[in-house]
Amino acid sequence: MDILVVLENNNGAIHRMSLEAIVAAQKLADEQNLSNAILAVGSDTSALANAAANYNTGEVLTADHNLLSIYNADGYAGAVKQVIDQEKPRYVFFGHTYMVRDYVPKISAQLQRPFLCDVITLNNTNGLTFAKQAFNAKLAVDLGVASEGTVLVSFQSAAFNADLISSGSAEVRKVEVELNEGMIKTTAEEPFQEEAGGVDLTAAEIIISIGRGIGKEENLPIAEALAQAIGGEISSSRPVVDSGWLPSFRQIGSSGQTVSPKLYFALGISGAIQHVVGMKGSKNIVAINKDGEAPIFELADYGVVGDLLEIVPKLTEAILAAKN
Length: 324
Prior knowledge:
Elements: E1 3-6, E2 9-10, E3 13-14, H1 16-32, E4 36-42, H2 46-52, E5 59-64, H3 73-87, E6 91-95, H4 98-111, E7 115-123, E8 129-134, E9 139-143, E10 151-155, E11 171-174, E12 206-210, H5 220-230, E13 233-236, H6 238-242, E14 263-267, H7 273-279, E15 285-289, H8 296-299, E16 302-305, H9 308-323
Parallel strand pairs: 1-4, 1-6, 4-5, 5-11, 6-10, 7-10, 12-13, 12-14, 14-15, 15-16
Antiparallel strand pairs: 2-3, 7-8, 8-9
Helix pairs in contact: 3-4, 5-9
């Protein structure tokens, strides 16, 4: 086996970032004529495995055990390591989620194999390399692995477009893993959030993002009303968080969350690179800004030059009218 993608369960469905990792595996498999497979881990993986079987992959593996009914780093690391030992893949791909950050370093240490985390792209020009961002996303660094053996790789959110996943029909095969209660030394708490009350913006399909162009904190309800009308989540650029107008878990960018929603509103956001790296994977970008020369317009699919304080309320009103 050449490539193995490990899935993450997101409330009974395949996590979006796992789908992006599958796209990465499909791309590499096509370019280098490699085999690829998908692994579902848990206590009952039938739903995830059946869903994954509809994608273009060689086969879908399942690692089921009653000690994996609730996520714990020791159990997941132990199960995935055993599958790696049995199947011996060259590359193991993950989405770079909070869960992956928790348990995959354990696998890396146990296998004594490298873990290339938060990768943004693959490059086959002069041998396979993996690019990572450095210096606050101002540079991209290419990493390669010269030694033989398994390489663990996690991909940053939006590094690949989940909509580009190719379909197929794969067989499901069960892989036996042996776990015991003595191996489980940690107990998982609730799924990680940046802070109490936080939201995972990476799962949002519509995001209304606010920049310093909103003017003042008292104007935030204008954007919040649009988010409520359209069913989106509120986010912001760093200056808004630094001003204390929104909590840090709402921040998009190199020092915040990286997202790839179907629709991204950039309200009063100039388009600094630190923000762009966190949302450039969005499927459709709508920018509203007074400054017609703002860099965000180079990235936007739709741009409106004007005062967001005048435009956004009218847009909200039109959306609500259309619903009625």
